[in-house]
Design goal:
By secondary structure, this protein is of the alpha+beta class. Helices cover 19% and strands 27% of the residues. It has six helices and 16 strands. The strands form four sheets. Strands 7, 8, 9, 10, 13, 14, 15 and 16 form an eight-stranded mixed sheet that branches. A four-stranded antiparallel sheet has the order 3-2-5-6, covered by helices on one side. The protein is globular, with a radius of gyration of 19 Å.
């Protein structure tokens, strides 16, 4: 398999958290300070402090619970996650995780999640700035799923999913939806709430039997077999980096 690395340079040196995260491309120094004050940054699982010293080689930093890559040696993997694999860096129950299915070095983390019962495309990277873009709600990155459900949804059910269904954490609606074949829904959503598509289908009386993510933003790959991975091409990374602008100036 070809080398998926897109760039290489000197590692980011240890320093104050705002300087390190700015060097990693997460946000400007001032924006990082604001994120720290808002309690949105953790270092090694604890809330960050303004001016705190961070070492990219030993410390783990997370912004809004998403781990940030602190190296300029960036890699971007596209994995077709099989059923039963956990979308996490580690698992206390010692189940297989997605990071064990790609090269161990440099260390990467999954961007968003697919629950263990779901399958399909997942991006893993050490590019914290890109991960923030793909998961922050303000960007509204579209994700497409093919969903096998119980029963045969009617046009009315599809209309209900398009117009929105009320869930325990608020209204959820499909950006696009169709019924390409009996009991199979093609649905596109642009938010990443936990088990969202499954809960939407449950709400309209058609529980999910199988769920496959087939597209993340502009990225799709029908030739990538379950369990296989590949490096994203430079053009694909540029497409992801060019997705919509956030509706705030926090830099995330």
């Amino acid at each position: 398999m070809s080398d998926p690395k897109l760039s290489g340079s000197e590692p980011i040196p240890a320093g104050r958290i705002q300087k390190v995260l700015a060097a990693a491309g997460v946000a400007s120094r001032r924006a990082v300070e604001e994120l720290v004050e808002q309690g949105r940054i953790d270092v090694n699982g604890k809330p960050a402090r303004l001016g705190q010293r961070v070492d990219p080689n030993t410390d783990t930093v997370a912004v809004d619970d998403q781990i940030v890559g602190l190296h300029n040696d960036l890699v971007h993997y596209l994995l077709n996650k099989p059923v039963g694999v956990i979308s996490s860096a580690d698992d206390p129950q010692d189940r297989l995780t997605v990071v064990e299915m790609v090269p161990r070095q440099p260390r990467v983390f999954p961007v968003g999640r697919l629950d263990a019962d779901s399958e399909g495309l997942l991006i893993l990277t050490n590019n914290g700035a890109l991960a923030q873009k793909l998961t922050h709600p303000s960007f509204g990155v579209a994700k497409e799923y093919w969903v096998l459900v119980k029963g045969n949804p009617s046009r009315g059910v599809l209309r209900q999913l398009r117009e929105g269904v009320e869930l325990e954490d608020g209204l959820a609606r499909a950006v696009a939806i169709s019924l390409p074949q009996t009991s199979t829904i093609r649905i596109v959503v642009n938010e990443g709430r936990n088990r969202l598509v499954r809960r939407m289908c449950d709400a309209v009386g058609h529980p999910v039997k199988r769920l496959v993510r087939t597209r993340i933003g502009p990225i799709a790959d029908r030739k990538l077999h379950p369990g296989a991975w590949r490096g994203l091409a430079q053009a694909e990374v540029r497409q992801l980096e060019g997705l919509g602008k956030p509706d705030c100036n926090s830099g995330t």
